[in-house]
Amino acid sequence: MITEALVLSAMIFVLGTFGVLVRRNAIIMFLCIELQLNAVNLAFIAFSRLMGIDGQVFVFFVMTVAAAEAAVGLAIIISVFRHYETVNVDNFKLLRW
Amino acid sequence: MYNALGVGVQETVETATQFQPFFPGLIILLPLIGFLINGALALRHAQASASAVRLGGELDLGEGDHLPATHTLPSYVAPGVMLVAFLIASVNFARMLSVELHDPHVIEYWTWIATGAFTVEAAIQLDQLSILMTMIVTGVGFLIHLFSVGYMRDDAGYPRYFSYLNLFIFFMLVLVMGASYPLMFVGWEGVGLCSYLLIGFWFSDREKSDAGKKAFIVNRIGDFGFLIAMFLLFGMFGTLDFVPLFSQAADLEYGSGLVTAVTLFLFLGAAGKSAQIPLYVWLPDAMAGPTPVSALIHAATMVTAGVYLVARSSVLYALSPIASATVAGVGVLTALFAATIALKQNDIKKVLAYSTVSQLGYMFVGVGVGAYAAGIFHLMTHAFFKALLFLGAGAVIHSMHRSLHRTNNHQDPQDMRNMGGLRAFMPITWVTMWVATFAISGIWPFAGFFSKDEIIWQTAAFGGAAKAPYPMLYQVYWVIALVAAILTAFYMTRMMVMTFHGASRTGVEEVKHLRESPPVMWIPLIALALFSVVAGWINVPEALRETFMGLGPLTGEWLHDWLEPITEQAHHIQELNLGEVAEQAPFGGGEVTWALVSTTLALVTVLASFQFLRRQNVKVPAEDTELSGFSKVLYNKWYVDEIYDRLIVQPLIKSSRFCWKVIDAKVIDGVVNGVGWAARALGFVVSMFQTGTVNMYAFVLTIGALIILGVSVF
């Protein structure tokens, strides 16, 4: 049972990582990060069956932080969009050496 | 046992023969109080005095008796504290006279240093030697303070001058009354500081402030020796307090290497402070200071500290024949060398400066041949007659300066070629300075005769001792000492003739302004002249008494007996190892004969050179370039300053420049700046990674995470 759960978690995590690396759309990248977080949540839940309640507590923390991050992140994306009228990250190159 | 001022709190039943000190702490404390009062006043008026120094360093106060407010308090406080200190010292002296004090009386105030095995008490030692030195310092010091009231009257830095002078006396008293080497060293450094401050008193003149620096730096070389000697002594004895140290020292092996090393290092310190070859060069330059300072610091007291140091350490020196021979040898060479330079100097103070160096040489001959009492005796008589000579010269310079100043003449008031015939204007100065000249030349019955002759005789006697270490050497010393004595008589007469006799070369207008000094200046001259006559009578050896003292029931060999508790250990060691000293001089003749010979020689020299020089026309002003041959060498002081400059100063400047320009500017700055440059370069390269591309950041982050994962798994 745990093996399947962990395999699923790993697959979702890799999918998320892949998405972050190859996509250029900021919102998609953002969603992929959420995917990674939830893959980790899944692994926590799976392990909590073996190792007690701690993993589930952690999941709540991750969800809370993810919610806060989503609020801030989306706000940034919106204000960037208002400026550039695009969410393609290739266009955001102002902060460089 | 004792309260803060050192008054004995009686615990035991007092016996009549016990020495009761009388507020000895106050002797040291009073000059310090004087320094604080005058110093505070000097600080308050620093602004006014600084601006006056810029304008030429002088307030022309005119002839009236009115003194500015800044002058009133120092005029009373500075000589006042000295007078009280002298009176207290006299009471202590009188009490010591009335009892048999064998062991030094040490009064401990508090613990100054306490680290492990090394403790130093802030303690003063009252014994025959220290009370004698204290009397000289406070007594001569008081007279010179008094003289300064007149001499420095027109100077804007008046309170500052007296604060330095009081501070000097404070440190000098710490030097002579301290009960251990470290305390003596405190005084030693303190008087060096005051010497520096007072030489450079007119600091707006570059040459004068440089002279102060020279004195300070040359003395550092000597102080290095003093410090090394203290370390060695602590290593040998585990204490630096005089009383336990000297009682342990008596058990040392005669002539051991360690004692020789210690005494030679101590002598290096003494040679620096007392201006002996090779470190004498600072003293002639020190004449840049006000003339009373030259009298007090650079003739009567501070420069004799080296002699005091050797006499204080007499036990150690008696144990080392090599060190003693070195002390006497350096002394006798200095005596001759400085006397030759003095022959050709034209600056009145320079003549006296070289004369001081020469006389200090005699003192070192005395303590070098084991005649510690004779060395101290000459120290004392020299303090009187040399202080008198300097104060007399000061009176002359004061008068000359005023006369040249009034007539807007810019000639040098210290150059004897501008003087001549001054006896008509300054009779008191003239007479008193002749007294001092007779004294320094060693003419009976003046003080210098007894002290100098004692030293010369002891040199001969020591060389003739049964088991003398280097008999030939001491015979040479003896001959040189006699020759230097004749030179002394000559250059002193030359100075007197050039200054006071012959026709006046000052100038017609200028002569009208020449005056005798005010009483505040000539009273000290007369007091010192009195001592320059009688001071020698306190120590007349048995052999001389019949021939030379028809002067009534006098004290005999008082000083020698008085210092016996200090020197007896050293004398004991000498007698044990060298046997009895000789009764005959190298070419035959006893003490009386040679005393007669030397005083006759001195008298003949004075009379002959007086007749000869008086007729010689001193050109006004004789050009320095007219000299040739040996006179030129002497006039240029054997080119010693030039040789030192070439051999020591220039290489030092070059190596310092190398350290500065190459090692510091290139190597050290290169490393420091290189580190900064490298950090910036690295930062520049790394900053290339900040491309602004979000995907690249994510990619690098992922790779990094994978690497960390890989490392932690495998």
What is the total domain count of chain A?
Answer: 1
N-to-C SSE string of chain A, H for helix and E for strand: HHH
- Strand arrangement across the biggest beta sheet of chain B: 1-2
Number of helices of chain B: 28
Distance between the termini of chain B: 81 Å
Low confidence ranges of chain A:
none
Describe the structure.
The complex is a heterodimer of chains A (97) and B (714). Chain A has three helices and no strands. Chain A has 97 residues and is mostly helical. Chain A has one domain: Helix Hairpins (Orthogonal Bundle). Chain B is mainly alpha-helical. Chain B has helices spanning 24-44, 46-54, 69-98, 128-151, 158-177, 181-199, 206-237, 242-249, 257-273, 282-285, 291-300, 305-312, 314-318, 321-342, 348-368, 372-406, 427-441, 447-463, 471-500, 508-511, 519-534, 542-548, 558-562, 564-578, 591-615, 629-635, 640-687, 694-713, and strands at 105-115, 118-126. Chain B has a two-stranded antiparallel sheet with strand order 1-2. In chain B, α9 (257-273) packs antiparallel against α12 and α15 runs antiparallel to α19 (471-500). The model of chain B is unreliable at 1-14 (pLDDT under 50). Classes of the chains: A mainly alpha (97), B mainly alpha (714). The interface between A and B is medium-sized, with 13 and 11 residues.
Keyword list:
heterodimer; A: 97 residues; mainly alpha; Helix Hairpins; 3 helices; 80% helix; 0% strand; elongated; B: 714 residues; two-stranded antiparallel ribbon; 28 helices; 69% helix
Q: Topology, pairings included?
A:
The complex is a heterodimer of chains A (97) and B (714).
Chain A: H1 2-22, H2 26-51, H3 54-84
Helix pairs in contact in A: 1-2, 2-3
Chain B: H1 24-44, H2 46-54, H3 69-98, E1 105-115, E2 118-126, H4 128-151, H5 158-177, H6 181-199, H7 206-237, H8 242-249, H9 257-273, H10 282-285, H11 291-300, H12 305-312, H13 314-318, H14 321-342, H15 348-368, H16 372-406, H17 427-441, H18 447-463, H19 471-500, H20 508-511, H21 519-534, H22 542-548, H23 558-562, H24 564-578, H25 591-615, H26 629-635, H27 640-687, H28 694-713
Antiparallel strand pairs in B: 1-2
